[in-house]
Design goal:
Structural class: alpha+beta
Number of strands: 2
Strand content: 5-15%
Strand order of the largest sheet: 1-2
Shape: globular
Helix content: 25-40%
Radius of gyration: 13 Å
Number of helices: 2
Order of helices and strands: EHEH
Length: 75
């Protein structure tokens, strides 16, 4: 199964989304597609200039985006 995320969820939702990728002992994968011009990122440097980020760097980026979004929810 492939889960394609097009937004940054809250922490709890992210855990659920990733959990949906593997079912019944079968491997799964996920991809995150984000747009720098999205209003969530307007006026920020949250998204890297590179159009493709993989592995641990991608996981770190998603975690940073989730923390930033969660922080904005608290305000």
């Amino acid at each position: 199964m492939l889960v394609v995320a097009t937004s940054i969820p809250e922490t709890r939702e992210w855990i659920q989304w990733k959990g949906r990728t593997a079912r019944q002992d079968r491997p799964g994968q996920y991809r995150v597609l984000l747009c720098r011009s999205d209003t969530a990122f307007a006026g920020t440097d949250l998204l890297p200039r590179s159009s493709h980020v993989e592995g641990e760097a991608a996981d770190d980026l998603i975690e940073r985006l989730i923390r930033e979004q969660d922080k904005n929810l608290d305000e």
